[in-house]
């Protein structure tokens, strides 16, 4: 139960003065429906309204605030003309100019002969001061209320900044006195301010510096949010660790067989990961481990080898992939590696016929299938294992972070390994996967050819096409990735279709098209044709499946590469590094290219190290959208900015370790305050699984 002290902050914004249904809806879309959401909707800028010299001494283009006497109204001659109001501050005349406004409101707001405080941008025009549509007009005694620094909020249509300023004021009034959850040691910091003070100050910035991520104000708020995140993850982790698990040592029989049949030897990074996994498997607690490795680093082999330990002891393992294509691909890989070892592998996807499914269910329940590979279908009710002991989840971020606790419910005391090909910067790792242990495969197998990357202006497209036609004639296969138009599937599709038609004029039936609007089956069919070589050029929107394996495809052309994020470019390029032939990645760009976009392309040219690229991506883009995290269930911070506040993350993590040691049940004064912090930032999972007992 949420502590009652927080109730006013979790009340809906309709409880604020002047917020009707219509505004409530608009504001909900902008930042949320609670009073707290308004407080967490931080200004991005400030408008300085403290400039108040006599008009005669004012400067052109400044935002001027002062008191004027209204002298005359001049209604427009026609609707095309503006409504003008003449006034003076006693030193110079000023014309207020209004386009398309209701006469009534103007007459009411600017009564002739009276004094008003106004604020707006001054322009010197035709020898006279002019101000169009003043931002403020109020009775003169309210001058001090407008002559100040005004926060500027991110807006949405229908909501004015003035309105948000007012709502922020109203919301601040609801802010209850909150206990201090930051450690006393940290309080002695010279520049310390409290959470409440920080919120007050961020909505009443004293200068632009108050709004920068490096300001003490923003850092305090960021720290609180990060601390809540780290504390929550630590609780979940503790809970997992407390769960008893089974201990699997394995006999080594199958493991050795598969290992010695491999056509290559494991990289040191793979061996390392295997050792770390084995330690978890042997230990009597549940494993929850993230296996990170770039595309092609050999995670599948590692996953398989670790599965064998469980199978050697008569239990079963499951591998879940996010798509049918990937599930099938894993099934084929694993089946091949397990050939002649006696290990039985099954494939279960939604596409199977009812009869085929039933057969799988039966063999599974009887323990005849050792490894089951599949999609979400694995977790439907009919799927009953004889003894599931180990679950591997590929590309899990597509499944959402919170789901992972429930995933292993199929097997009692199941160990869980999550594999991701997305290199994740360390800071994000801590915030999103802080509850998991992790292993990293940081090197690619030796001899792996790199993808030579060139950056070319799109005016050279004809040259690219003729080079491509030579390559295709030699039997190479290629991807042609169409531009991200505006992230709406519709316009992306239009661009892709157009390019498809154009390329068909050169390459005829050899060209295929794949996009997000296609049904799963249609996608599969096109992918299959590309795989077997019936199509040799695949035009695609950015939907090319993560991890799709077509070793013959060694060329990738990306149009409007300047529009893509680094992580996305890296993921796409990963597709042509599956074989042992050197790939060619051609990044086509068109002007305008922003400085950041240029740097992204340079980085792509320079390196293939996914981990380095991920760190750079974080630097260049800041918190929000790293690695396509928006749709992927990564923690989204409202107050913290991961590109600036990484140091706070480390500090918070250490802080949490201390807390867990000294006050694991949050019973001290500070502990109680920390509980409030968890509720404040809605760390619901932690609250549910831990605080609720
Ligand atoms: P990931 O899943 O990490 O993208 P995979 O496990 O699919 O990578 O491996 C990519 C390719 O590399 C596969 O063809 C696999 O057989 C091969 N491979 C894996 N480990 C090694 C290794 N140590 N040396 C050489 N090739 C390897
Ligand atoms: Mg793989």
Structure description:
The protein is globular. α8 crosses α9. With 693 residues, the protein is α/β, with parallel strands linked by helices. It contains 25 helices and 22 strands. The relative contact order is 0.10. The chain has a seven-stranded mixed β-sheet, covered by helices on one side. It is 40% helix and 17% strand. The site of adenosine-5'-diphosphate has 14 residues, from α12.
Short description:
With 693 residues, the protein is an alpha/beta fold. It has 25 helices and 22 strands. Helix 9 packs across helix 23.
Bound ligand species: adenosine-5'-diphosphate, magnesium ion
**Whole-Å distance between the termini?**
12 Å
State the helicity in percent bands: 25-40%
- Helix vs. strand class: alpha/beta
Strand segment tally: 22
The fraction of residues in strands falls at 15-25%
Q: Please, what is the average pLDDT?
A: 86
What is the overall silhouette? globular
Major beta sheet, strand line-up? 6-7-4-3-2-5-8
Largest sheet, strands/sense/barrel: 7 strands, mixed
**Radius of gyration, rounded?**
31 Å
Count of runs of 4 or more consecutive helical residues: 25
Parts with pLDDT < 50 across at least 5 consecutive residues = 623-633
Please describe the structure with a list of short key phrases separated by commas or semicolons:
7-stranded parallel beta sheet; 7-stranded mixed beta sheet; binds adenosine-5'-diphosphate; alpha/beta
How do the helices and strands line up, and which of them pair or pack?
Layout lengths: L6 H4 L10 H10 L4 H5 L5 E4 L14 E12 L8 E6 L4 E6 L4 H7 L5 E7 L1 E3 L2 E5 L3 E4 L3 H4 L2 E4 L8 H13 L10 H4 L7 H9 L12 H27 L10 H9 L6 H15 L5 E6 L5 H14 L3 E5 L3 H14 L7 E4 L5 H12 L5 E4 L13 E7 L9 H4 L7 E6 L5 H8 L3 E5 L9 E7 L3 H13 L3 E5 L7 H19 L3 E4 L5 H13 L4 E4 L12 E6 L7 H9 L8 E7 L5 H12 L3 H12 L24 H17 L6 H12 L3 H8 L2
Parallel strand pairs: 4-7, 10-15, 10-16, 11-13, 11-14, 12-13, 14-15, 17-22, 18-20, 18-21, 19-20, 21-22
Antiparallel strand pairs: 1-9, 2-3, 2-5, 3-4, 5-8, 6-7
Helix pairs in contact: 8-9, 9-16, 9-23, 9-25, 10-12, 11-12, 21-22
The protein binds adenosine-5'-diphosphate and magnesium ion.
């Amino acid at each position: 139960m949420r502590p009652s002290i927080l109730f006013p902050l979790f009340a809906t914004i309709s409880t604020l003065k002047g917020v009707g249904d219509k505004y409530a809806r608009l504001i909900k879309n902008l930042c949320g429906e609670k009073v707290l959401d308004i407080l967490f909707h931080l200004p991005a800028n400030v408008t300085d309204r403290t400039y108040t010299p006599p008009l005669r001494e004012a400067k052109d283009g400044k935002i001027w605030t002062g008191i004027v006497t209204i002298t005359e109204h001049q209604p427009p001659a026609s609707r095309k003309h503006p409504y003008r109001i003449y006034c003076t501050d006693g030193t110079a005349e000023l014309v207020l100019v209004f386009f398309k406004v209701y006469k009534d409101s103007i007459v009411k707001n600017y009564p002739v002969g009276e004094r008003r405080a106004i604020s707006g941008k001054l322009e010197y025009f035709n020898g006279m001061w002019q101000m169009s549509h003043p931002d403020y007009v109020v009775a003169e005694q309210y001058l001090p209320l407008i002559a100040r620094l005004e926060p500027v909020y991110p807006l949405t249509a229908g909501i004015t900044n003035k309105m948000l300023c007012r709502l922020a004021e109203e919301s601040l009034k609801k802010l209850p006195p909150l206990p201090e959850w930051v450690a006393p040691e940290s309080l002695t910091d010279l520049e310390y301010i409290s959470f409440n003070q920080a919120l007050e100050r961020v909505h009443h910035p004293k200068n632009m510096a108050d709004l920068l991520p490096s300001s003490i104000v923003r850092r305090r708020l960021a720290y609180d949010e990060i601390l809540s995140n780290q504390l929550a993850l630590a609780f979940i982790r503790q809970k997992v660790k407390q769960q008893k698990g089974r201990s699997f040592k394995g006999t080594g029989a199958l493991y050795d067989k598969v290992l010695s049949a491999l056509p290559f030897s494991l990289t040191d990074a793979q061996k390392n990961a295997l050792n770390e996994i084995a330690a978890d498997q042997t230990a009597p607690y549940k494993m929850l481990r993230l296996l990170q490795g770039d595309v092609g680093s050999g995670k599948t082999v590692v996953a398989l080898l670790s599965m064998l330990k469980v199978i050697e002891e008569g239990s079963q393992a499951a591998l879940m992939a996010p798509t049918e294509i990937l599930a099938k691909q894993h099934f084929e890989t694993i089946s091949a590696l397990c050939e002649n070892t006696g290990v039985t592998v099954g494939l279960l996807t939604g596409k199977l016929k009812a009869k085929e499914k039933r057969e799988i269910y039966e063999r599974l329940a009887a323990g005849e299938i050792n490894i089951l590979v599949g999609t979400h279908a694995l977790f439907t009710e009919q799927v009953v294992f004889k003894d599931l002991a180990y679950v591997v989840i590929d590309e899990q971020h597509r499944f959402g972070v919170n789901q992972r606790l429930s995933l292993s419910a199929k097997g009692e005391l199941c160990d869980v390994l999550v594999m991701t090909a997305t290199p994740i910067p360390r800071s994000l790792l801590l915030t999103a996967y802080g509850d998991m242990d992790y292993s990293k495969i940081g090197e690619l197998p030796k001899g792996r050819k790199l993808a030579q990357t060139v950056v070319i202006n799109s005016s050279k497209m004809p040259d690219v096409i003729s080079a491509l036609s030579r390559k295709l004639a030699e039997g190479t296969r290629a991807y042609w990735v169409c531009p991200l138009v505006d992230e709406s599937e519709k316009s992306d599709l239009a661009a892709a279709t157009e390019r498809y038609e154009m390329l068909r004029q050169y390459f005829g039936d050899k060209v295929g098209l794949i996009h997000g609007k296609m049904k799963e089956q249609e996608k599969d069919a096109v992918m299959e044709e590309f795989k077997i070589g019936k199509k040799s050029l695949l035009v695609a929107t950015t939907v090319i499946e993560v991890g799709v394996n077509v070793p013959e495809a060694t060329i990738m052309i990306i149009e409007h590469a300047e529009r893509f994020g680094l992580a996305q470019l890296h993921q796409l390029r990963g597709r042509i590094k599956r074989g042992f032939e050197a790939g060619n990645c051609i990044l086509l760009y068109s002007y305008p290219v922003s400085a950041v976009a240029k740097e992204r392309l340079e980085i792509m040219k320079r390196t293939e190290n996914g981990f380095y690229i991920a760190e750079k991506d974080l630097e260049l883009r800041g918190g929000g959208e790293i690695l396509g995290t928006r749709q992927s269930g990564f923690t989204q911070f409202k107050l913290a900015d991961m590109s600036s506040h990484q140091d706070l993350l480390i500090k918070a993590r250490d802080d949490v370790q201390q807390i867990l040691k000294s006050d694991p049940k949050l019973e001290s004064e500070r502990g109680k305050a920390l509980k409030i912090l968890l509720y404040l930032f809605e760390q619901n999972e932690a609250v549910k699984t831990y605080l609720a007992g």
